[in-house]
Amino acid sequence: MTPPERAAAAAPLLAVSGLCKSFRGLRAVADASLTVMRGEIVALIGPNGAGKTTLFNLVAGALAPDAGSIRLRGVEIAGQRADRVCAAGIGRTFQIVRPFADMTVLENTMVGGFRGTADRALARERAERALRVLDMWPERHRPASTLTLPAGKRLEVARALASEPELLLLDEVMAGLRPTETDRMVAAFRRLNAERGVTILLIEHVMRAVMALAQRVYVLHHGEIIASGTPQQVTSDPRVLRSYLGSAAAPH
Ligand SMILES: Nc1ncnc2c1ncn2[C@@H]1O[C@H](COP(=O)(O)OP(=O)(O)O)[C@@H](O)[C@H]1O
Ligand SMILES: [Mg+2]
Fold it and tell me: Do residues 58 and 1 lie in contact, with contact meaning Cβ atoms separated by under 8 Å?
């Protein structure tokens, strides 16, 4: 390794620093900083409206920040377009699932598989791999319009995964799942992380999943990171418990 390569390997995979985004005076993300190391699983939690999805949109290039820095492997990516960020190795899911209804599960997943390639066979191979990991292989020829909400969420993950990202951003993909379905998805993410080295940053309300998956947790409240640490540390932090009071979504 050359010295610059060594520096890049030691740097966090993702380093967000002083990130700010306002919508007509509303500070959705206010001076937020966080890091994700290679190989980590990190959770971002916080009450509804805390700014979690906005932070993801900033990292993924769907929105441009007002201020702050977003570095991937030490390289600034803040303000870059979503397709550039995807090409750089960040895959993301959308909180609102909107597959192409007329296309099959496999075809929808292949949309993600075309990252950095126009090779249809390669896109298909990547999509098939993603569907196998997520236990969606038997459903691959179904039209996406016939999927239940939980299956739609898994398809959303499969599409992101088919782009073979180094960093996977998951936005509440376990919301509305039954505990057994949550456990299946948790197991799939563990396998991805352990066997394929995928680094994961997940927004999640389902604390059962956060506790099972995350090595570290950041808590966002009114756009600010108010706590970070192990799942045990943050869930016993009085500031965190207070931030959820009066909110519909207490950590559960
Ligand atoms: N595109 C937008 N335009 C205006 N306000 C927005 C937009 N996106 C999010 N917001 C507002 O920013 C705040 C944070 O929203 P969001 O990031 O979706 O929170 P979370 O994902 O934590 O529930 C909310 O008050 C929301 O209404
Ligand atoms: Mg959200």
Answer: no
Tens-place pLDDT, residues 174-212: 988 899 989 999 999 999 999 999 999 999 999 999 999
Any long-range contacts for 115-118 (C-beta under 8 Å, 24+ apart)? Answer: 115/86, 115/87, 115/162, 115/163, 115/164, 116/87
- CA of residue 60 to ligand 2 center, whole Å: 14
Confirm or reject: Cβ of 47 under 6 Å from ligand 1. no
Who's near 225: CB < 8 A, 6+ residues apart? 32, 33, 34, 218, 219
Ligand 1 centroid distance, CA of 66 (Å): 15
The number of C-alpha atoms within 13 Å of 127 and in the hemisphere containing its C-beta is: 24
Among 54, 219, 225, residue to substitute to test ligand 1 (most atoms within 8 Å of Cβ): 54
pLDDT at 9 over 80: no
Question: Domains plus CATH for the chain?
Answer: 1-89+165-252 (3.40.50.300), 95-161 (no CATH)
Distance CA 64, CA 79 (A): 5
- Asked if 44 and 202 count as a contact pair (C-beta separation under 8 A), the reply is yes
Residue in this structure with the two tokens 């993702």, named with its chain if needed: 14
What secondary structure does DSSP assign to 112-181, as a single string? HHTTT---HHHHHHHHHHHHHHTT-GGGTTSBGGG--HHHHHHHHHHHHHHT--SEEEEESTTTT--HHH
Cα 76 to Cα 3, 70, 88, 104, 229, distances in angstroms: 19, 6, 11, 37, 25
